[in-house]
Amino acid sequence: MYDDLPVIPADRIEAVCKIGQGAACCRFMVGGARGIECAKHDPELFEQINRRVAFGSFSAQGDNCEGLRHDSATA
Which of 24, 16, 2 minimizes the C-alpha distance to 75? Predict the structure, then answer.
């Protein structure tokens, strides 16, 4: 189900996704078996994450780019 998310390139994790920067950190970054992955284009994860953000259970609030897809190395 979630085993096919695109891996976020290392140079984007701090610059775009803002890992470790509190509320500015992207809410769609998830840890996966292959590294830090982008969950923005997975409909089920997208909805779960946004519900949790609305409920206040996520520190990360950012929505910093268009998201990554397998057919694109950048967003």
Answer: 16
